[in-house]
Amino acid sequence: MHINPVTVVFIISFILKMLGFNLPSFIQEPLYKFGSALSYLAMVYLGMMLVGVNIKNIFKDKMTYLFVPLKCFVIPFVLGVGLALTGLFSPMAVGVITIVFAASPMISMTVFYKEYGLDYVFGNAVTFVCILLNILTIPAMYWVVSSVMKIL
Q1: pLDDT tens, residue by residue, 103-117
Q2: Torsion-angle region of residue 87: left (phi > 0), alpha (psi -120 to 50) or beta?
Q3: What's the pLDDT band for 51 if we cut at 50, 70, 90?
Q4: How far apart (Å, rounded) are the C-alpha atoms in residues 51 and 120?
Q5: Which residues 6+ apart lie within 8 Å of 125 measured at CB?
Q6: 75-99 pLDDT, tens per residue?
Q7: 89 by DSSP, 3-state: which?
Q8: CA distance 111 to 105
Q9: Which long-range CB contacts under 8 A does 85-88 form with residues at least 24 apart?
Q10: Are 98 and 80 in contact (CB under 8 A)?
Q11: Quick check: 56 and 134 in contact, CB under 8 A?
């Protein structure tokens, strides 16, 4: 089993934050500024990646038909409703988490696929489809989860 360093850092950070640990401001401020710059770099990388997508081959791989609905609909719905049912999160937090998980895999897919020896062309294609669908799926999933929360 391969362990992704980003996942390890996320888990450690999540645990430390839940335990009430905060970084000193002299460390937190440079990390914040570095993180702010990364989103712009990610957009440049994403644009470069999407330019290379062969649109004719996007739906040739049957995994696309499995992965795209899971990523854009099923995972955000199950996670959003599940978090709402726990009662541990405010409606705003549930909405934000739903939006984050409804968003496309962005640049992580290509790196993930390449790192584990998978078809990164497929990763690009799935990312491309998810990004196009996100125009509709992100607001739709937010609305669906919000509506379910109101019913509950």
Answers
A1: 876 555 666 666 666
A2: left
A3: confident
A4: 14
A5: 53, 54, 57, 58, 61, 64
A6: 889 988 998 888 888 888 888 888 8
A7: coil
A8: 11
A9: 85/152
A10: yes
A11: no
H/E stretch holding 66 reads: helix 63-69
pTM above 0.70, yes or no: no
pLDDT of amino acid 70: 85
Q: In terms of residues, how long is the chain?
A: 152
Would you put residue 117 in left (φ > 0), alpha (ψ -120 to 50) or beta?
left
Degrees (nearest 5) of the Cα angle 16, 22, 24?
140
Note the pLDDT of residue 115.
65
Whether the CB-CB separation of 134 and 103 falls below 8 Å is answered with yes
How many Cβ atoms sit within 10 Å of the Cβ of residue 49? Answer: 19
Listed in sequence order, the residues at least 6 apart from 101 whose beta carbon sits closer than 8 Å to its beta carbon are 75, 76, 79, 80
